Amino acid sequence: xxxxxxxxxxxxxxxxxxxxxxxxxxxxxxxxxxxxxxxxxxxxxxxxxxxxxxxxxxxxxxxxxxxxxxxxxxxxxxxxxxxxxxxxxxxxxxxxxxxxxxxxxxxxxxxxxxxxxxxxxxxxxxxxxxxxxxxxxxxxxxxxxxxxxxxxxxxxxxxxxxxxxxxxxxxxxxxxxxxxxxxxxxxxxxxxxx
Amino acid sequence: xxxxxxxxxxxxxxxxxxxxxxxxxxxxxxxxxxxxxxxxxxxxxxxxxxxxxxxxxxxxxxxxxxxxxxxxxxxxxxxxxxxxxxxxxxxxxxxxxxxxxxxxxxxxxxxxxxxxxxxxxxxxxxxxxxxxxxxxxxxxxxxxxxxxxxxxxxxxxxx
Lengths: 194, 159
What we know:
The complex is a heterodimer of chains A (194) and B (159).
Chain A: H1 12-20, H2 24-46, H3 49-65, H4 78-97, H5 105-110, H6 126-135, H7 139-150, H8 155-162, H9 166-186
Helix pairs in contact in A: 1-2, 2-3, 2-4, 2-7, 3-4, 4-8, 6-9, 7-8, 7-9, 8-9
Chain B: H1 10-20, H2 29-40, H3 43-60, H4 71-77, H5 87-96, H6 102-156
Helix pairs in contact in B: 1-3
């Protein structure tokens, strides 16, 4: 029942309707629910803790300011919408952070996989090595993998966040995994796990 | 793009492994069963799955970061202060929320209903009181008439 202190019972969609009416309690509940997953997502794209927190904050404030724009649809859950806002903020941030040497996705994908990894063949723990390999991926490949692998979004939802088709998403993920495999094989990590 | 086919080709399964990894839970729902069926029948495909699993395990090794504890408070503190509402706006907003609060709609019906009942009962009580007074007055007038008549009879009977 929505009127009986529905912090745990209310769906994200119900919370959004309430936020559209200016309900701060509903907003706080939405923040509680999505803060950590959203932070994880942004952190994995930016690899910068402080800036990731700033972008999480900006994402939620945008939700508050633009709550009227949200509409419930079959393939557009609140989580998808949040990820989409966060993704666009990440893209803006990356463009601002590298205004001069920013390369387009196409340009970045032309870079041979092996050029960026030779400096990472030190004795680092496995997770750091994999994290670095992930960070070196082109943003869209990385985002596709993070959305499907770590954020547990369905292929449809991930495709919606990126604004592409499911086929294009699969292609991005396959290229991302292939590059990761090459990098981690060079780092001799794929031989370590069986 | 949805693939509803119940049978999938080995090339499609290789694509699934290359894109989504070894865990069937991450494969598209509509193709999962067929892909798993196909996987059972092919050793080369099982080897492919093992290769994909190696990368999955490395990806699993990446730890999940946690946000600072005060981040939640920071976000909520940044919310703009809502403007003070006029009475009319407050009522409009209050009514605007009724779709999520059934009790608000119930209140809308119950308040006038209760007022009606209270008013009705008051009026009914007043009417009853009036009837009683009228009865008493009627009794009084009959008594007066009888007294008057008795007085007249008494006068006439005097010598």
